[in-house]
Amino acid sequence: MDELETQLRDLVVANRILAREEVVDAYGHVSVRHPDHADRYLLSCSRSPELVTLDDIVEHTLTGDPVGTEDRTLYAERHIHGAIFEQRPDVQAVVHNHSLAVLPFTVTTTPLRPMFHTAALMGNEVPVWDIRDNFGITGMLVVNMDQGRDLARTLGSNRAALMRGHGCVVAAASVKEAVMCSIYLQVNARLLLDSLPLGEVNYLLPGEVDALRDNLLRPVSMDRAWQYWRMRAGCEDL
Ligand code: MN
Predict the structure, then answer these.
(1) CA 182 – CA 168 distance, rounded (Å)
(2) Ramachandran class of 22: left when φ > 0, alpha when ψ lies in -120 to 50, beta otherwise
(3) pLDDT at residue 48, as a whole number
(4) Is the model's pTM score more than 0.70?
(5) Ligand 1 centroid from CA 51, angstroms
(6) 211 alpha carbon to ligand 1 midpoint, in Å?
(7) If you measure from the C-alpha of residue 94 to the centroid of ligand 1, how many angstroms do you get, rounded to a whole number?
(8) pLDDT (0 to 100) of residue 110
(9) What ranges do the domains of the chain cover?
(10) Annotated catalytic residue within 21, 77, 86, 177
(11) Which fold is adopted by the domain 3-232?
């Protein structure tokens, strides 16, 4: 299997895993940078992630146009992906989701910070982007490159950013890392919603986050989690 074939299959599996773990529902999407063309990315046409197959994957330019003839509808918010790939050469995969557990942290002043070990991939800081700051009253969706680039600027060099009243983005060095980070960002949000009513939260310290991240990114750790989620999503044969 060549690199493109591997990336395409992992991308389909990533769609199914994120659906199975309820990080995405009818909405939300995941992309990978094209392994042979750094100025393109691979993303499904407009379908719910649980239903995505290999045939649904469309090659996009960074500005969100399909490469070649395409008559299927594309995701309205595909510009999220291109704008992040454009700004971040280190990023190889992007997830956008509307996780219900994450949403409370997009509309309040309580920061979403890592508080348990496997959430360390999210990094120490998760900034909040508000589309209203620079675009006023909108339909809340990221529907053009100006909005995508504005979001990418707020993301900066971080792994994740929240989107006020909407959801979040995760930008990672591989599709497996993007999936792991998205899942544990959601779990961390749930645990914080459980912990905050009990009193002051003792968050992970930056040094702990760095040490944990290095450990989680080791293939022995990452591949074990991927194998587990892949089985749960019913993708053993993909
Ligand atoms: Mn959205």
Answers:
(1) 9
(2) left
(3) 98
(4) yes
(5) 17
(6) 32
(7) 13
(8) 97
(9) 3-232
(10) 77
(11) L-fuculose-1-phosphate Aldolase (3.40.225)
